[in-house]
Amino acid sequence: MPFVEIWVPASTAPASRHSIADAVQAALQSTFEVPAGERLQLVTEYSPDSILCDRRRFGIERSQQPILIRITAKEGRTDEQKTKLYKQIAQQIQEGTGLRIEDLVVVLAENSSGDWSFASGLATFIQKA
Fold first, then answer.
1. Nearest to residue 39, comparing CAs of 12, 73, 16, 85?
2. pLDDT score of 127
3. Is the dihedral of CA 61, 64, 65, 70 positive or negative?
4. What are phi and psi of 49, to 5 degrees?
5. Can you give the pLDDT at residue 80?
6. Which CATH fold topology does 3-115 show?
7. Where are the domains of the chain?
């Protein structure tokens, strides 16, 4: 179960926030084969004065209101799966919200089985209760 953190401008409508979260989840299910029912997401709003972002990085013109997504997942996905994930997230966010995908930043942070504890202080993937 990946852990997804999403930061959106405070001006983002609640319906768009949910659409963004749904888009990320659908893309994870499709590309990373995350089972339905395994969802852990935190959506946080930020004020315009709390973010500093280069508006012209990699030749892309961004606004000052990016959508930032960090996905923490166990290692093991191929570059092809990662590329498909990023593309699907962007497509689904654009289709579901109409927001500018040029303002979308996605970071995938991979870790190992021992880096997760979902409850009771147990190393979920390497230790049983």
1. 73
2. 66
3. positive
4. -85, 0
5. 97
6. Macrophage Migration Inhibitory Factor (3.30.429)
7. 3-115
Q: Of 53, 56, 88, 46, whose CA–CA distance to 71 is shortest?
A: 88
Cβ atoms 63, 55 nearer than 8 A? yes
Report the candidate in 13, 20, 77, 127 with the shortest Cα–Cα distance to residue 4: 20
d(CA 81, CA 102): 21
CB 89 within 8 A of CB 104: yes
For residue range 50-86, list pLDDT tens digits in order.
988 888 888 888 888 999 999 999 999 999 999 999 9
Mean pLDDT of the chain: 92
Which residue type occupies 97? T
Q: State the residue for tokens 């012209």.
A: 56
